[in-house]
Amino acid sequence: MMDAMSTSLPGQGRREGPLTDLLASRTYRTALYVALALPLGGLVFGLLVGGALAGVLTLPLLVGAAFLLGTLWLVPGLADVQRWLAGLLGLRFSRVTPPPVYAGVLPWLRATLADAATYRALMFHLLQLPLAAVCWIVLGTLLGASLAALAAPWWAARPEVFPLTWNGGQVTLTALGAAGLLLAGLGGLLVTAGVLNLLGRVWAWLAYALLSAPLDEGGARREVAALRRAAGRVALGDDLGATLADLAGQARAASTARAVALTAPDGTLRAASGPDHPALHGPGASPPAGGADVRYAAGGATLATLPVVAGGADGGTLRALYAPGTQPGPEELAFLLSIADHAGTALHAAELIRRASERAEEQERARLARELHDSVAQALYGITLGAKTARATLGRDPEKTRASLDYTIRLAEGGVSEMKALLFSLRPDALEEGGLIAALTQNAHALGARHGLTLHADLGREPSLSPAAQAAAYRVAQEALHNVVKHARASQVWLSVREEAGVVTVEVRDDGRGFDPAALPGATLGQRSMRERAQGAGGTLDVQSRPGTGTTVTLTLPADREEGGA
Fold first, then answer.
1. Which residues pair with 273 in a beta bridge?
2. Would you say residue 543 has pLDDT above 60?
3. What is the chain's alpha carbon radius of gyration, rounded to the nearest angstrom?
4. Residue 533 near residue 470 (C-beta atoms within 8 A)
5. Among 315, 420, 523, 547, which has the minimal tally of Cβ within 10 Å of its Cβ?
6. Can you name the residues that pair with 295 across neighbouring β-strands?
7. Catalytic activity annotated for this protein (predicted)?
């Protein structure tokens, strides 16, 4: 089936002049086309009409069916010859035809009779002979008259061989008359070349109208809308399965395919839209890179297979199944290839997200391991030291023994609290099971016990946050508390969580030494990390501080309505 055509019309891209048609190479290509059109048209007309008549006349003998099927088989085959010959007129058809896989007589007959291209090609075959005959007559007359006029000096010099008579008398052609006829002959050649190119345009537009499929503007608009939605869906990238299913649905809705499927490299179905078919499952043909493999499937259907490339690796295939008699054109295959590229992008993005998540988990576990070493290990060392001191002073200095035991108990309680907080953070489902308030409570207890800070917690009830926002709130509060211990030299810390008017606010305030934000225009690495977490969850982060007045870190996040209404 022909779905695309390109042509270079006369006069495009070059200057015109009186000798343009006569000197242009397209004129002689058109002349060759017209010269071949009459014998080819006679041959095609004879084959089709003769085959049809023979089939009708011998139909009672059962041989006629073979004649009729053979004649029908000739129609698309001869159309290929016509399209090749139309290359002389500057036409270039893009042909997409399934390989000749035998699927049975009835499926082939049903597909051929249902294809509108068959009837357009038949009309071209039937029009070719009479139109070629008209072209031969017109051009032959003009060319014969022009050549006769150009030969005037030769036949005027031999009146005995070519006598010229008028009203019963012989006419003698003078030199001036011969020169006039010579100029007329040259003018006739120019006219013949112009008429020839005009007829070439007629042939070109006739071939374009009958040998190529008409453009589908509505389909083009649907394809553009589908690609726009597919790009938005891939950019969202929230759920790979839902994204691939949506891409398959968009491809089917904007194309003429009955079903579209996305498969893994091993043929496993990832997503599909439309009725199921065996050709959409299992190993299939290997399409060329950046191209399509189009062939017949079971039942006379047509299957187009396109590659899905995910970050340079094999991401599987996109398969589009068409009803018998329907085949995809180049524009539709280009659209499906774009959808396949979107699917490859979605697969690549999902793989990158998975790798980034694994890397982030590894980094977080390494940080927690360092915290475990720096805090709990030191607490255990302090407990050991306090116990040894108490044992050494036991019986000699009861006051010092009591102080050592009190110090040891505080360290043990702090170590237990910090160990709980670290174990809580190590579990990936800790926030989901315990919630933000429980996580912050554990962290606050460990902070107070370990570093001797007085912590005022106003945590209230569990806020309505999505899992992503909940994790961001916990990490920001954890980093803010860590900064208090590391930089603030504070004695008191206030931690609060409140939810008002659809906004969740997490605030960490200390009475430490503070700092001048203007002196840190680029902010610290910890602050940048907190701001990125806040922005990633759709919130904002505000840091207020002055030297000697402490620091206040305020995180605001939008409340999750679904979570709140649950």
1. 260
2. yes
3. 43
4. no
5. 547
6. 303
7. ATP + protein L-histidine = ADP + protein N-phospho-L-histidine
Number of Cβ atoms within 10 Å of the Cβ of 218: 8
Tokens 């079971």: give the residue: 298
Cross-strand bridge partners of residue 501 = none
Q: Report the distance separating Cα 23 and Cα 13, nearest Å.
A: 16
71 dihedral zone (left: phi>0; alpha: psi -120 to 50; beta): alpha
The distance from CA 215 to its chain's CA centroid, rounded to whole angstroms, is 22
Burial 332-351 (b: 16+ CB within 10 A, else e): bbebbbbbbbbbbbbbbbbe
Q: Are 482 and 443 spatial neighbours (Cβ–Cβ below 8 Å)?
A: no
Lowest mean pLDDT among 24-33, 65-74, 136-145, 160-169: 160-169
User: DSSP letters of 267-319?
Assistant: S-EEEEESS--GGGSSS---PPTTS-EEEE-GGG-EEEEEEEEETTEEEEEEE
Task: Kindly tell me if the per-residue pLDDT of 168 is higher than 70.
Answer: no
| pLDDT at residue 15 is higher than 50 | no
Measured CA distances, 363 to 145, 247, 370, 478, 486 (Å) = 92, 34, 11, 16, 20
Helix axes 467-483, 430-451, angle to 10 degrees: 10
* Separation of alpha carbons 317 and 266, rounded Å: 10
pLDDT digits (tens, 9 = 90+) for 450-509: 677 888 888 888 888 888 888 888 888 888 888 888 787 888 999 999 988 889 999 999
Assess whether pLDDT exceeds 60 at residue 258: yes
**Minimal CA–CA distance to 334: which of 251, 262, 444?**
251
Q: Which tens digits make up the pLDDT trace of 140-158?
A: 888 888 887 777 777 666 6
Query: What's the DSSP call for residue 216?
Result: -
φ, ψ for residue 490, nearest 5 deg:
-90, 160
The pLDDT of residue 11 is: 39
Kindly report the pTM of this predicted structure: 0.43
Alpha-carbon torsion 403, 407, 408, 413, what sign? positive
In total, the chain counts a number of residues equal to 566
